[in-house]
C-alpha cells in the first residue's frame, strides 16, 4: 500500500475509534494545516453522515484574520458545528492573566480556555493535529493520551499502546487527547494536501506583508504585537510554515506560491518546522512542561 | 513508496541510540535547529564528537538519566521508503516497552556487540521477536571497529545466533556487520569490511521485502455505523471499519460473528466511491444485502473461511502492571473493537525470558511473560496466533484503574 494511503487509512481508523468509544468527543480546530487535514480525514471517515463531533476553536484573539476567514468558510462548506472558546473571556473572567512586555503572548493562556471549554461542554475526547515528528516530547505521546481531571499529562503514567488496539476507557472527569496523524511528518502532510487538493488559508503561501524583526525572526507586524521606535518594520515576501497565533508564529522568507514550491522548500530546509515557533524556544523541555499543564 | 516500521533492540551499551542517531544524521533527517539544541545540551562522546544518542532521548527524566525509558517514534524517509522507528529500551525492567514497540513494527534490528557475542539480552530480544511474530529479524553485529573488522568474529557470532534462531524457530533472518560509531555499513558500504558482500543497513532497509502474509482470509471488525438519516439517504446503513486480511469483495458470502447471521457484501465504499474489492489495511464502509442487527464489536468474516468463536482459550501474555496478575479478578479483553469480560483462570507457566525455560507455580508480575488459560463471559472472535497473528491479539484492561495491564496472543483453544 502506498504510504499516503496507509497513513490515511490509519487516521480514519483512529477517528472512527473515537466515534465508537466516546460519548462526547470534539475536534480541536486551530485553522492550521494539520487540523484542516483532520477535517478532510473526518469527511472520509464519516460521510455521507455528519461528523459525530463538533469543531472546537480556541481563539486567542490574536489569530491571523486569514485564518478566521478560512475557518468560517470551512464550517459553512462542511455544514458542521463550530464552538469557539475565547481566551479574551478567560482574561475578562480573571482566570487567565495577560502577559506584559514586548514578548507577551497568549499562547500559554490558551490552555486555561481549552480546559474551561472542555469542562463547560463535558468533552471526553479531544482530537488534535499534533504529530510525533514535531517535537521530542511529542515523539513519546500516545495516540489516545489520557489527561487527568486537571487536564494534566503525566509522561510517566502513559498507557502502553499495542498493535492498533486503542484503550479509551477513562474515569469520570478525565479526558483523552487523540492524535490521528501522530505518524505523519510535515512532508507527509504537505504531500497529502497536494494529492487531495485540500484548500488552505492564504498565509501558507508566499505573500507581501509588513514584518518586524524580533528575537532573530520575522514576525507579522500585527496590532497585537508591541512595536517600538527601535523596531525595524519591513515589507517582505514571506509565508508561514506553521500557523499559531500572531505573537508566536514567525514568517519565513519565501517565494513559494504553489504547493509544489512549498514541498521543494521543505525538502531543502535545514530548519525544523517548530524552529519558527517562539513558544518552543523557552527551554529544552518547553513543550514537555506545557503538555503537563494541559496544552496540546 | 511504502512504509517500513522497525524496532531497534539493544541497550545504550550496544550503541543502539548511536545507530539510530547515525541513520537519522546520515540521511540528513536532523535539521540545524535540532543539531543546535543537541550542541547546547553539550553531551559529547569520549572522542569529542557530538553524542548522537541524545537525539532519541525525549523526556526530561530520560535526558537527566541518559537512558530511554519510554518508546519513542522517529521518522525518516529516503527516495525509496518512509521509515518509522520504534526506539525502545532494551533492559529487562523495560520489557513492556519493548513489547509495545515490537507490536508496532514489522522488522526488528537486534544489536549484538561484536566483543560480547550472543548474550542473555540477545536471547531475550529474539524471544520477544518470536513471541510477537515479527516478519523479519535483522541481526546487526555492531562495534566491528573494536574487533579490527575481523571476519572470523562476525562468522562465529553468526553461527551462535543461527543456533538460537533454530531453537526459537525464527526463519526470516539476516546479518550485517556494522560500526554505528564509525558509520561502517550504516548508510554506505564500508571499505573496511571488504569481505562482506551484502548490503549496508540503509540499503537493506530500503529494499527488504516484507511480503504480507498472504492467504489470510479477511476479517472486518465493525467500528462505527454510518447512518445519515436524511431524507435522501433514509435507508443508508454502512458499516465502517478497517479490513484485515485478503479477499474482501463484492457479492462475497459473509457471517457476522459472534451471532452467526449470514448475508452477502452488497457494496464496498471508500470516500463515497464504490469499490469491487478492498485490500488489507484499507478503511472502508461496507453494506450487506440483508437488514440485520450489527453493532460495534461485531466482526464480519468470510463465510468460506470464518474465524473461531470461543469462550475458553490459552494465550501467551505479557504483563504491564505494577499489580500482579490476579486469577480471581475480572478483567476486560479488547480485541479490535470488541470488549469482553474475562477471568485469567489459570497460569499455565511463566517463561524465563532469557532462557525461554518454563517456570511453574509462579506469579505473573510486571514485565513477566507467561502462558495462561482465559475464560470469557461471552464469545470472543479470533484466529490462532500461528494462523493469523493480527487476529489473535488483544489487550487486557483493569476495569478498576482503566489501565492497559497486559497483552495477549491467543495460541490455542482450551
Per-chain topology:
The complex is a heterodimer of chains A (296) and B (414).
Chain A lengths: L2 H19 L3 E4 L4 H14 L8 E5 L5 H14 L3 E5 H6 L17 H12 L3 E3 L16 E4 L27 E4 L7 H11 L10 E8 L2 E4 L12 E8 L9 E4 L5 H10 L17 H8 L3
Parallel strand pairs in A: 1-2, 1-4, 2-3, 4-6
Antiparallel strand pairs in A: 5-6, 7-8, 7-9, 8-10, 9-10
Chain B lengths: L1 E8 L6 H11 L5 H10 L18 H6 L6 E6 L3 E7 L7 H9 L3 E7 L6 H12 L4 E7 L8 H18 L4 E5 L23 H7 L11 E8 L11 E5 L5 E2 L3 E5 L3 E10 L2 E3 L1 E2 L4 E6 L10 E4 L5 E12 L10 E6 L2 E14 L6 E2 L9 E14 L10 E5 L6 E10 L1
Biggest interface, which chains?
A-B, 57 and 69 residues
CATH superfamily of the largest domain in chain A: HUPs
Please mark out the parts of chain B with pLDDT under 50 across 5 or more consecutive residues, or reply none: none
Give the class of chain A from helix and strand content and strand pairing: alpha/beta
Give the helix tally of chain A. Answer: 8
C-alpha Rg of chain B, in Å?
24 Å
Share in helix of chain B: 10-25%
Give the overall form of chain A: globular
The order of strands across the largest sheet of chain A is 3-2-1-4-6-5
- State the CATH architecture of the largest domain in chain B: 3-Layer(aba) Sandwich
Average pLDDT number of chain A: 87
Uncertain stretches of 5 or more adjacent residues of chain A: none
Question: Structural class given helices, strands, pairing of chain B?
Answer: alpha+beta
CATH class of the largest domain in chain B: Alpha Beta
Order of helices and strands of chain A: HEHEHEHHEEEHEEEEHH
What does it look like?
The complex is a heterodimer of chains A (296) and B (414). Chain A is an alpha/beta fold and 296 residues long. Helix content of chain A is 32%, strand content 17%. Chain A has helices at residues 3-21, 33-46, 65-78, 87-92, 110-121, 186-196, 259-268, 286-293; strands at 25-28, 55-59, 82-86, 125-127, 144-147, 175-178, 207-214, 217-220, 233-240, 250-253. In chain A, strand 7 (207-214) and strand 8 (217-220) form a beta hairpin. In chain A, helix 6 runs antiparallel to helix 7 (259-268). Chain A is globular and about 55 Å long. Chain B is α+β, with helices and mostly antiparallel strands and 414 residues long. Chain B folds into 3 domains: 2-207, 3-Layer(aba) Sandwich (Rossmann fold); 219-302, Translation factors (Elongation Factor Tu (Ef-tu), domain 3), CATH 2.40.30.10; 308-413, Elongation Factor Tu (Ef-tu), domain 3 (Beta Barrel). Helix content of chain B is 18%, strand content 36%. Chain B has helices spanning 16-26, 32-41, 60-65, 95-103, 120-131, 151-168, 201-207, and strands at 2-9, 72-77, 81-87, 107-113, 136-142, 173-177, 219-226, 238-242, 248-249, 253-257, 261-270, 273-275, 277-278, 283-288, 299-302, 308-319, 330-335, 338-351, 358-359, 369-382, 393-397, 404-413. In chain B, a hairpin with a 2-residue loop joins strand 11 (261-270) and strand 12. The model of chain B has no long low-confidence stretch (mean pLDDT 89). Chains A and B meet through helix 1 and helix 2 of A and helix 2, helix 3, strand 2, strand 3 and helix 4 of B.
Amino acid at each position: 500500500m502506498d504510504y499516503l494511503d496507509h497513513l490515511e487509512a490509519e487516521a480514519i481508523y483512529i477517528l472512527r475509534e473515537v466515534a465508537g468509544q466516546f460519548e462526547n468527543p470534539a475536534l480541536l480546530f486551530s485553522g492550521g494545516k494539520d487540523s484542516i487535514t483532520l477535517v478532510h480525514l473526518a469527511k472520509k471517515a464519516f460521510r455521507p453522515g455528519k461528523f459525530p463531533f463538533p469543531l472546537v476553536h480556541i481563539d486567542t484573539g490574536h489569530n491571523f484574520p486569514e485564518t478566521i476567514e478560512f475557518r468560517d468558510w470551512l464550517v459553512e462548506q462542511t455544514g458542521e458545528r463550530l464552538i469557539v472558546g475565547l481566551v479574551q473571556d478567560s482574561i475578562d473572567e480573571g482566570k487567565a492573566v495577560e502577559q506584559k512586555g514586548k514578548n507577551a503572548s497568549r499562547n500559554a493562556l490558551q490552555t486555561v480556555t481549552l480546559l474551561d471549554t472542555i469542562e463547560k461542554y463535558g468533552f471526553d475526547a479531544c482530537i488534535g493535529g499534533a504529530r510525533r515528528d514535531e517535537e521530542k516530547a511529542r515523539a513519546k505521546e500516545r495516540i489516545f493520551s489520557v489527561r487527568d481531571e486537571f487536564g494534566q499529562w503525566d509522561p510517566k503514567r502513559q498507557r502502553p499502546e499495542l498493535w492498533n488496539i486503542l484503550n479509551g476507557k477513562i474515569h469520570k472527569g478525565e479526558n483523552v487527547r487523540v492524535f490521528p496523524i501522530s505518524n505523519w511528518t510535515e512532508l507527509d502532510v504537505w504531500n497529502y494536501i497536494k494529492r487531495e487538493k485540500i484548500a488552505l488559508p492564504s498565509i501558507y503561501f508566499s505573500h507581501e506583508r509588513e514584518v518586524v524583526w524580533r528575537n532573530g525572526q520575522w514576525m507579522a507586524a500585527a496590532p497585537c504585537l508591541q512595536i517600538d521606535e527601535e523596531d525595524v518594520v519591513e515589507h517582505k515576501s514571506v509565508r508561514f510554515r506553521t500557523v499559531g497565533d500572531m505573537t508566536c508564529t514567525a514568517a519565513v522568507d519565501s517565494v513559494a506560491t504553489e504547493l509544489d514550491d512549498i514541498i521543494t522548500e521543505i525538502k531543502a530546509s535545514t530548519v525544523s518546522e517548530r524552529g519558527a515557533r517562539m513558544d518552543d524556544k523557552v527551554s529544552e523541555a518547553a513543550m514537555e512542561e506545557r503538555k503537563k499543564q494541559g496544552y496540546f | 513508496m511504502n512504509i517500513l516500521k522497525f524496532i531497534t533492540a539493544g541497550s545504550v551499551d550496544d550503541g543502539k541510540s548511536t545507530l539510530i542517531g547515525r541513520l537519522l544524521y546520515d540521511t540528513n533527517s536532523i535539521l540545524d535547529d535540532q543539531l543546535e539544541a543537541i550542541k547546547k545540551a553539550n553531551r559529547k562522546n569520549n572522542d569529542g564528537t557530538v553524542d548522537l544518542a541524545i537525539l532519541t532521548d525525549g523526556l526530561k527524566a530520560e535526558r537527566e538519566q541518559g537512558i530511554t525509558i519510554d518508546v519513542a517514534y522517529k521518522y525518516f524517509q529516503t527516495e525509496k521508503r518512509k521509515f518509522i522507528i520504534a526506539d525502545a529500551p532494551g533492559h529487562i525492567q523495560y520489557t513492556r516497552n519493548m513489547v509495545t514497540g515490537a507490536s508496532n513494527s514489522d522488522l526488528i534490528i537486534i544489536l549484538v556487540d561484536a566483543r560480547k557475542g550472543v548474550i542473555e539480552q540477545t536471547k531475550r530480544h529474539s524471544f520477544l521477536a518470536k513471541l510477537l511474530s515479527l516478519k523479519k529479524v535483522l541481526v546487526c553485529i555492531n562495534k566491528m571497529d573494536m574487533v579490527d573488522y575481523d571476519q572470523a568474529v562476525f562468522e562465529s557470532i553468526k553461527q551462535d545466533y543461527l543456533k538460537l534462531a533454530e531453537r526459537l524457530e525464527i526463519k526470516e533472518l539476516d546479518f550485517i556487520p556494522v560500526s554505528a560509531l564509525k558509520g561502517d555499513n550504516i548508510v554506505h558500504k564500508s571499505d573496511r569490511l571488504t569481505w562482506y558482500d551484502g548490503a549496508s543497513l540503509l540499503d537493506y532497509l530500503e529494499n527488504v521485502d516484507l511480503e504480507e502474509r498472504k492467504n489470510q482470509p479477511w476479517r472486518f471488525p465493525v467500528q462505527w455505523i454510518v447512518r445519515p438519516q436524511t431524507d435522501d439517504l433514509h435507508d443508508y446503513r454502512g458499516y465502517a471499519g478497517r479490513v484485515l486480511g485478503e479477499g474482501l469483495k463484492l457479492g462475497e458470502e459473509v457471517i457476522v460473528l459472534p451471532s452467526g447471521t449470514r448475508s452477502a457484501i452488497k457494496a464496498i465504499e471508500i470516500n463515497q466511491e464504490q469499490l469491487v474489492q478492498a485490500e488489507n489495511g484499507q478503511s472502508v464502509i461496507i453494506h450487506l444485502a440483508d437488514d440485520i442487527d450489527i453493532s460495534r464489536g461485531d466482526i464480519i468474516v468470510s463465510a468460506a473461511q470464518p474465524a473461531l468463536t470461543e469462550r475458553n482459550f490459552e494465550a501467551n501474555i505479557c504483563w504491564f502492571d505494577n499489580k500482579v496478575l490476579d486469577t480471581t479478578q475480572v478483567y476486560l479483553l479488547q480485541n479490535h473493537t470488541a470488549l469482553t469480560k474475562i477471568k485469567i483462570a489459570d497460569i499455565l507457566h511463566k517463561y524465563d525470558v532469557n532462557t525461554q525455560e518454563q517456570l511453574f507455580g509462579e506469579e505473573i508480575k510486571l514485565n513477566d511473560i507467561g502462558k495462561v488459560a482465559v475464560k470469557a463471559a461471552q464469545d470472543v472472535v479470533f484466529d490462532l496466533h500461528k494462523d493469523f497473528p493480527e487476529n489473535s491479539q488483544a489487550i487486557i484492561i483493569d476495569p478498576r484503574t482503566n489501565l492497559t495491564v497486559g497483552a495477549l496472543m491467543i495460541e490455542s483453544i482450551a
